[in-house]
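Thread: quick sanity check before group meeting

JM: Hey all, I'm pulling together slides for Thursday and realized we never actually wrote out the predicted structure for the chain we discussed last week. Dropping the sequence here so it's in one place. If anyone has concerns about the input, flag it before I start.
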Amino acid sequence: MNAFTTTAAAVGSEEPLSPGYDTATKDDAEFNKLFRHGFTTIDDVQMHYVIGGDGPQVMVLLHGWPQSWYEYRPIMPSLLPGRTVIAIDLPGMGDSTGNPPSMTKTVLATYVHKLLNHLGHHENVQVVAHDHGLNVAYSLAAQYRDQVAGLFLMDAALVGKNLKFATLESMFWHFSFFLQNPLAEELVTGRVETFLTYFFQSVKTAGENVSDDELAEFVRVYSRPQVLYAGFGLYRTLTQDEADNTKLQDTPLTIPVHLITQAGLADAFLPPLQDAAPHATSAAVPGAGHFLLHEAPDRVLAEINAFYSNPTP
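JM (edit): ok, ran it. Output follows.
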């Protein structure tokens, strides 16, 4: 076993502060055979993560909005050979409990960094990220360069030197809506299922909408106290993220970076990413929408394993 690796069972877990954390997994025999829920308090926030495997290569999965670690559930077992896989609920979101001082991605990345350190993973971590998780992943790699071995990113744009938040806000209706504080919370609270049902339907481009089980899990976590506010905070801090990333981009990443997007966005999203990682590459996933893990899980899995060569178990 490599010096930077511990097994999934090596680090103990706290008692969870989120009572419904296993709602979607308690009757999932495959999940319970391969993975476990873990809880660790980092700077007054109890972080929730899901961990499985004991392979020498560590892979971390970071979610976006309006999802949680659970968006990775369909592909997690297939990622296990040779790996320890850790899917994290971002601070203040999912079944993580507590309020980080800011939802800026530099702050959220510091929580991820400290959690990985607590679990014994100080270097050579493979990172997979979707949506807002992309900005967290970049901040993690840019701030803690020895910890991250590569970035595999999905369907989001990196604000910074040459992509401004104002441009994104003009492209997507929900960016402006979520900035309305506290109006957005007041309108959505008590109507989370209605809102998320509409949201998922509005941004997909092919196939079926998220399943009833997936929708129910995302409705559950975004109905928890403070989670909706934290989720909207991902958008409300993008102007600060733009400023933070502009400074971080002064020192380009040298690790491998690859982005996959829905059709039509790869050419638009790659140049801003290359401001941070000049050698970054991209590919489009024809026929899929924003929720790539739902609409094209086999393609996503193949892309991950092509980018991060699957280690020998």
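AS: nice. The two ends are 12 Å apart (CA to CA). Strands lie at 35-42, 45-52, 57-62, 83-88, 125-130, 148-154, 257-262, 281-285.
JM: adding both to the slides.
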